[in-house]
Amino acid sequence: MEDESREILLSSLENFGVSIPENVSSVKDLNPETLVSICGQCLNRIDGTASFSTSLPDSMAEKFRICTDLSSAVEKLGYIGDMSYYKFLYPSEEDLYKLIRFLVERLSESPKGVNVGEVKDVNTGTKISADNFKNSLEDNKGINIDYQEVEQEFKELRLKNEVPESSNSEAEGASDDVSSSITGDLRKNELTSVLSEKDSSEEAGKSVGATGDEQIAVQWDDEPSLQEQLSEIRYEVEDLQNGEDEQELAVAVSAKTTEVQNLKEEFKSIKTAAELAFDDSHPTEFYLEQVDAKKQNHVELESQWAATRKSLEEKKRRLEESLDANKPEVWENLQKLREVELERQSALSEIQKRDNELAKLTADLEKQPKVASRRSNIERVKEITKNSRKQDADIERILRETREIQLESNSIQERLSRTYAVVDEMIFREAKKDSVGRQAYRLLTSIHESFEQVCEKILATDRVRREMAEYEKKLAAMASRSLNVDKLQADLDAIMKENEYLEQCLKNN
User: Fold this and answer.
1) Is the pLDDT of residue 159 over 80?
2) Number of CB atoms found within 10 A of residue 15's CB
3) May I ask which residue range the UniProt record assigns to the signal sequence (predicted)?
4) Residue 401, in any domain of the structure
């Protein structure tokens, strides 16, 4: 139980952002260097203005100075017990445990001692997001991102402008315009993809000719496989046409036709690129001129798209106004749908964030040392509390008995004093009359002095026993520290050498 609590102390320090060396798995593994490092970090976190050293230098004088500063700072924080420089240079296991526990308590109470686990999670998530974004940019290098955004906006615009069949003719006309614009935009995208493929083919031909020819040859050899895919798709279309459900057939045929068209376009682009790559009749300058012309055409298309986009946005605004005027309930539903979509995106991002946090916490939990269950800890606390109450009851009983014995002792002493006074007076009167009385008086006086000496001896013996118990406790504490005599001798030799060096420097000056 004690070893587990000491491991938990180190884990708590790590949670507060204190760096723990890898070779330290428990408090007993700490040495003077690691202890000074941990204490310096803790004190710097507790007091933001402090700048305690986190390492021990080679000079013994500097070591004593740093350890003295650390011990003074720990005492100012309210450490109960003896605290000096030798607690850092020659620590015992018990001293280490008490000091680390005290620092953890002060870190938890200090506003500076913020748990950095969540901050690390946020920083890690930000870094991962940035890396993913960077990777995506590298993957999409050379692709016209503007056209992809345009296509997405067109699709959203078309979805937003869809109305029931009972809508007016103006909405239908606008939808047709949007559809035609989408078709034109898709053609622009296809043109851009062909241009980019041409550019990549030409650059590959200039940089690595042999390798580029091999790659294009491989693409050229893919023609039979594309033809086979087209044939398979046609067979599937013919099979679907034989079905009974006309609506499902129409949807399937439309999808397959689109797929066939895409494959044809892809094959056409690859074929064109391959022809350009194997064409030796035109020099490189000819293709460069074509590239420049295509770039100029691309700029013109962008300017045309800007004008088209502006007109489409205006049409969209008019459609929204007409929809708001003619179909307020549809407009309201559309607004609600947008809000729901935003909430859904927010919820998805929150779920993703929680999943990442759960994964990290699960990994941290697996890394944590296996400790006793909560029930056993509760039972242990109950047992300690029960023993503490029992000890309190025993202490109260002992104190009560001590008071009673003290009262009884005081009453007996008073009674003895009074009895002695009476007997002394009686024997003293008899001693004046004869010699027997004088002898009895001498015996009484000697007996009284002997009893006083016995009482003093008993009290002195009791004091000696208590001192012996204290010295034995100190000896046990010294034995538990297990001081390394070799280390002490080495430190002493280092101090003597430094003193000799300083004396030599003083003589030279």
Assistant:
1) no
2) 17
3) none
4) no
Q: Minimal CA–CA distance to 36: which of 98, 87, 76?
A: 87
Instruction: Return the sign of the alpha-carbon dihedral for residues 136, 140, 141, 144.
Output: negative
Q: What is the mean pLDDT of residues 145-168?
A: 44
Indicate if the pLDDT at residue 347 is higher than 60.
yes
* Residue 329 domain-assigned (yes or no): no
Cβ atoms 226, 234 nearer than 8 A: no
Contact 201, 215 (CB under 8 A): no
Q: Of 320, 336, 358, which residue is a domain's last?
A: 320
Asked if residue 18 lies in contact with residue 42, where contact means CB atoms within 8 angstroms, the answer is yes
pTM assigned to the model:
0.36
Residue 185 sits in the same domain as residue 106 = no
Looking at the fold, whether 198 and 295 belong to one and the same domain comes out as yes
**Exposed, middle or buried, 443 (CB in 10 Å: 0-12/13-18/19+)?**
exposed
Task: Give CA 306 to chain center in angstroms.
Answer: 47
296 in the same domain as 206: yes
Alpha-carbon distance of 436 to 442, in angstroms, equals: 10
Residue 414, SS3 per DSSP: helix
How many domains is the chain built from? 3
* Domain assignment of residue 305, yes or no: yes
* CA 106 to chain CA mean position, Å: 21
Domain limits for position 500: 434-509
Task: Identify which of 209, 394, 204, 206 has the alpha carbon closest to the alpha carbon of residue 285.
Answer: 206
